[in-house]
Design brief:
By secondary structure, the chain is α/β, with parallel strands linked by helices. 37% of the residues lie in helices and 19% in strands. The protein contains 37 helices and 38 strands. Strands 14-13-10-11-12-15-16 form a seven-stranded antiparallel beta sheet, sandwiched between helices. A seven-stranded antiparallel beta sheet has the order 31-30-27-28-29-32-33. Strands 17-18-21-20-19-22 form a six-stranded mixed beta sheet, with helices on both faces. Helix 25 packs across helix 28.
């Protein structure tokens, strides 16, 4: 059927900031859909608040609105742009919920906007727990026994029938938000109240427990003439009870019989027909009783989901692109398969390999939080790997996580209590946790049987058998350790050759084998190559080699044939950033994608290496060749040796490729851009001090230490408080402000370990611990610059709203600066030019400054892409990462049209988004270690309006009336008066603790008095519990003892109350409230600002 001609303009809603449960997979899907629809001649209007996305680049859509994703904001865009259709299925739960709200409020009808991709009845039936349950029963499918609760009273009645444990699933939420497993009435009561509060429709499903059952997902697509295809089956390694986003998953499903699979397939087709999704894709989840084979339907997402991205990358089938084309009227048989170019999209993909997805967590950022894996998602990223077998895929996946694991290795062996005390091991098997797969391995080494481990873990015996095979082979490998020659070389024999080949086919990495054979990685590599045991590369082709693949999308294995096509073109390899994590997120993938686009446009063949299935960089058409591989020295070198590249870009993927840079250079890889030795000069404190001394720039007093003994005298000489951190880490990992010797001793013990583990393959090398004087109350400034070796230009100067000492990734920042004088800005620029020259920068550079008492200090310099590059690029209308990539291949800034610096006539504000609601009990106080998962951008010609937009987009909606609680430290009491007076004049009631209330009263400002916590009642705790506080201003009285401030902050998070902990932040918020009370915020597309 032909595409629709009755619509010309389509609105696409994005998913907003990266949060747990909703990550960059929606940038991938949105970008794919925008490109597909514009190819078909449609005009695209896009709204998204996340600047670190490819989809918000001004060339992706015709109108790009970087605005908060709320119904009132999107309604303004609809009124202004007048689209005929809205595609709501590409923006995750956020986009779907906003679309439903617009429909239910009558806004879509008022402006005659049609929902395409999924109609409102279909969305309601899939998302509303009661409607979905009834629909399943109507078509004769089994669902767990359940009830819908809209109040605590109704929930208490339901659980009488269902019993414990009970599963709680709030409606219209993502990533299991507000859900969980309740084992007793007290837990149940708390979860019900939280779930009802977090559900946009105040509704939760209470479900009988199917914990321990096997979990499966099917990705399904349907068109308007009722063609239905199953794109991919996915099986969870972990049994029901662990959120699928926190479980290892495997594609295709490994343990279903053909009959069971056909029953599940038929059920999925019935479901998508019943729900009414007739122009797009859906994800359907099933549970299977391992004893009886009973299949039950768990839930359905009537949209592109996290699993859709995984299924797309696993099969090569572009789900988001096809979903967009189905939404405009095409049928599956009319859309060609991009991979084969010969088959239509109605051909179901078939794969002849195994894909494993393994989550990555960030519990180290949130000490004190419960690390048990439950139905509430907690992971911040994931890695995907491809192998010929489950064994190969799982080993590759584990080393793709970049947390020091080399595969299914023996890193837990240091925990000898596991082997002294079987009770501890059994506890680790029973309770789902991050390293459970390693505990399973050690259980086999301990002598436990498959049946015993299954009884503890409910992991299917198929997977356990495969792990046991790895354990048994590892024992064989260790016992058959070859002899070493007098020079330490491995003595080669036919037995060695056979063992090595089997090891590689089982997915063992060179470092794993080296550890077992008590030699080093290079020896294993040399021996393999001598024996001709080298990686071969196979194609991801959607059809199990039935048709030739036109798209070069590869994975490595150890087979007999290689499918990489020869090419005579000049090649540039780009190393990606691996799995998302706090400190290294989508911003770096953005830079890698821009590098691929730019270098391709200059006539080079681009090669992308990455292991993250959520990203645009791993889309099959972003680069000329895609290798879905771990970012380790071994795996990268395998590709380098196969492709004979002309240059490698390591500066765009964050710390991941930088940690490999020196080894790659020493191995002869042609690194382009800033030389790795210059990057190391910036990272090495003593070498960097020489650079600063040459250009005469101040740095906070500092030194380096490698042990507790060397750290103590340094800290005493510099003077407490000091800022301590390991070198060569990202996101302020293990960075702390230390106030005394005892804290320093405890820190050093931990930080030496972090630093030594962070550099791949160099674990025995202890990197220095950096010790700096902490500059209290300084203004922090970020500068992003670009240099071609001759000319250096500053892309943006960003002033932080928070004080120095809070990680730059966690601070609100403003571009252009709003309080700095012109001479200060000029001084920052001059230092930036000199640093670029002194470090021989070729490409991008980020400098962090602190200004205290008019003195400018350099805190650190990173001669690489920073996380602020996408934000700055959007703010000034110049794609800095693209220009930097072209500089690396020989271009000059003058040739690229960027000859002078740009100071915008409007303000851009970047605000962080935090995951504290996922980690109750964790310390939510901000400091030098980064804790945010994502960011949003507010843009307006008025600074206060831009700040208000950023706050709203981050979820902190500023109140226009009500009560404000104020409690500030002594040195802020003078500056709080102006803020308090402005609030008073706007009609807010003030609530304050004794000291602050006294200062307010002296200035003629009345306030209601509350006691400090622990000194009487009522306290702020009582006011918050009674829903009597709308905003909080609470500056910390000191880092040493702050339990009360922590409690106030936690209550603000729990009750979604905006809280400001610095005077500049509070001032910006109050100014924004004033603007919001007096005018409506405009919506303006990015393209208009950039003119």
């Amino acid at each position: 059927m032909p595409k629709r001609t009755d619509i010309q303009k389509i609105l696409i809603i994005g998913s907003g900031p990266i949060i747990i449960g909703q990550a960059c997979e929606f940038d991938y899907s949105g970008t794919q859909a925008c490109k597909a629809l514009r190819e078909e001649g449609y005009e695209i209007t896009l709204v998204n608040s996340n600047p670190a996305t490819i989809m918000t680049d001004p060339e992706i859509a015709d109108q790009t609105y970087i605005e908060p994703i709320f119904a009132d904001t999107v309604a303004k865009i609809i009124e202004k742009e007048r689209p005929q259709a809205l595609l709501p299925t590409l923006g995750g739960q956020t986009g779907l919920n906003v679309a439903v709200e617009l429909a239910e409020k009558g806004i879509l009808d008022e402006f005659q906007v049609e929902l395409i991709g999924a109609k409102l009845p279909a969305i309601r039936m899939a998302e509303d727990r009661e409607l979905f349950k009834n629909a399943m029963l109507e078509i004769g499918l089994d669902v767990p026994e359940s009830g819908i609760a809209r109040s605590l009273e109704s929930a208490m009645e339901i659980v009488k029938n269902i019993g414990f444990p009970a599963i709680i699933r709030p409606a219209f939420t993502l990533g299991g938000t507000g859900g969980g497993i309740a084992y007793n009435i007290e837990e149940y009561r708390d979860m019900i109240q939280q779930g009802i509060a977090l559900s946009p429709v105040n509704e939760v499903l209470v479900e009988e427990s199917v914990i321990g059952w096997k979990e499966f997902e099917l990705e399904v697509m349907r068109d308007r003439v009722d063609n239905v295809v199953i794109i991919c089956s996915i099986e969870n390694f972990d049994a029901m009870g662990v959120h699928t986003g926190d479980s290892i998953t495997v594609a295709p499903a490994q343990t279903l019989s053909d009959k069971e699979y056909q029953v599940m397939r038929d059920s999925a087709i019935q479901i998508i027909r019943k729900i009414g999704v007739d122009t797009g894709g859906s994800n359907i989840q099933f549970a299977v009783d391992p004893d009886s084979g009973r299949q039950t339907v768990i839930e359905m997402n009537p949209r592109v989901s996290r699993s859709s991205a995984l299924a797309s990358k696993a099969t090569g089938f572009p789900i988001a692109k096809i979903a967009a084309k189905l939404a405009i009227g095409y049928t599956l048989d009319e859309i060609p398969n991009d991979i084969t170019k010969k088959t239509p999209s109605s051909f179901e993909p078939t794969i002849d390999y195994v894909v494993a997805k393994i989550p990555r967590w960030a519990f180290e950022k949130f000490p004190g939080t419960d690390e048990t894996l439950t139905t509430r998602m907690k992971s911040v990223g994931e890695a995907m790997s491809i192998g010929r077998t489950f064994k190969e895929a799982i080993q590759k996946g584990l080393r793709s996580l970049e947390n020091g694991w080399t595969g299914l290795d023996n890193h837990l062996l240091g925990n000898s209590s596991l082997f002294r005390n079987s009770d501890e091991l059994i506890s680790k098997l029973n309770i789902p946790n991050v390293e459970r797969i390693f505990y399973i391995k050690h259980a086999f080494q301990f002598g436990m049987t498959i049946e015993q481990i299954y009884n503890h873990t409910k992991v299917d015996p198929f997977f356990l058998y495969n792990i046991k095979e790895l354990v048994d082979f590892e024992s064989e490998l260790k016992s058959e350790q070859p002899d070493l020659s007098s020079t330490g070389q491995i003595q080669v024999s036919s037995e060695t050759s056979s063992l090595l080949l089997r090891a590689k086919r089982f997915g063992f990495s060179d470092p794993q084998i080296a550890e077992l054979w008590e030699t080093d990685e290079q020896d294993i590599r040399s021996t393999r190559q001598l024996l001709g045991i080298v990686a071969t590369f196979k194609t991801v082709d959607t059809c199990a080699a039935e048709f030739e693949a036109e798209t070069p999308y590869y994975y490595s294995t150890y087979g007999s044939e290689d499918e990489v096509r020869p090419s005579d073109k000049k090649k540039i390899m780009i190393l990606g950033s691996g799995p998302n994590r706090i400190g290294q997120g989508i911003e770096f993938d953005y830079c890698c994608v821009h590098a691929a686009m730019a270098v391709k446009a200059d006539g080079y063949e681009t090669i992308m290496i990455n292991s993250n299935p959520e990203t645009v960089s791993t889309d099959y058409d972003t680069s000329d060749r895609l290798y879905f591989e771990p970012l380790t020295f071994e795996d990268v070198m395998n590709i380098v040796e196969r492709e004979k590249i002309d240059g490698a870009i390591v500066q765009f993927g964050g710390q991941t490729p930088l940690n490999l840079a020196m080894r790659l250079k020493q191995a002869g890889v042609p690194i382009i851009g800033t030389d790795p030795s210059d990057i190391e000069r910036a990272e090495d404190r003593q070498l960097f001090k020489l650079v600063l001394d040459q250009i005469g720039v101040s740095q906070p007093p500092s030194d380096t230490a490698t042990s507790v003994e060397t750290a103590r005298p340094i800290a005493e000489r510099i003077g407490y408080p000091v800022l301590v951190r390991p070198s060569f880490v990202l996101g302020g990992r293990a960075m702390q402000i230390v106030y005394d010797r005892e804290s320093l001793d405890a820190y050093m013990e931990f930080a030496v370990q972090v630093s030594s583990d962070s550099v791949e393959g160099l674990r025995e090398t202890i990197k220095p611990i950096l010790i700096d004087k902490y500059l209290e109350d300084a203004i922090e400034v970020d500068v992003d610059a670009i240099s071609d070796g001759e000319l250096t230009l500053v892309g943006g100067v960003m002033e932080h709203i928070e004080e120095a000492g809070i990680h730059s990734g966690d601070s609100d920042c403003v571009l252009p600066p709003y309080t700095l004088a012109e001479d200060q800005i000029e001084r920052l620029k001059q230092i930036s030019y000199e640093l670029a020259k002194g470090l021989n920068v070729l490409g991008l550079m980020n400098i962090q400054f602190a200004i205290k008492n008019e003195e400018v200090y350099v805190l650190e310099v990173n001669p690489r892409a920073s996380r602020t590059i996408p934000f700055v690029s959007k703010s000034i209308g110049i794609p800095l990462a693209k220009l930097a990539a072209r500089i690396m291949v020989g271009k000059k800034l003058s040739q690229l049209g960027f000859k002078s610096e740009i100071e915008p006539e409007y303000f851009s504000v970047k605000a962080p988004v935090f995951p504290f609601n996922r980690f109750p009990g964790a310390n939510s106080q901000l400091g030098p270690e980064m804790k945010s998962t994502g960011e949003v951008m507010g843009i307006d010609r008025n600074l206060d309006a831009a700040f208000a937009k950023a706050q709203k987009a981050s979820g902190a909606i500023l109140p226009l009336s009500g009560q404000v609680f104020i409690s500030v430290r002594n040195r802020d009491k003078r500056s709080i008066l102006l803020i308090a007076r402005k609030l008073h004049e706007m009609g807010f009631n003030l609530v304050a603790t004794h000291g602050t209330a006294k200062v307010l009263r002296r200035s003629g400002l009345s306030s209601e008095l509350v006691y400090s916590i622990g000194k009487g009642r009522p306290t702020i705790y009582d006011f918050i519990k009674n829903s009597e506080i709308d905003m909080i201003i609470n500056t910390p009285t000191g880092y040493a003892h702050r339990p009360n401030e922590q409690l106030i902050r936690q209550m603000a998070i729990d009750h979604n109350i905006p809280i400001f902990t610095t005077m500049p932040g509070a001032s910006a918020a109050v100014n924004s409230i004033s603007v919001l009370r007096n005018r409506n915020l405009d919506v303006v597309p990015l393209q208009e600002y950039a003119r």
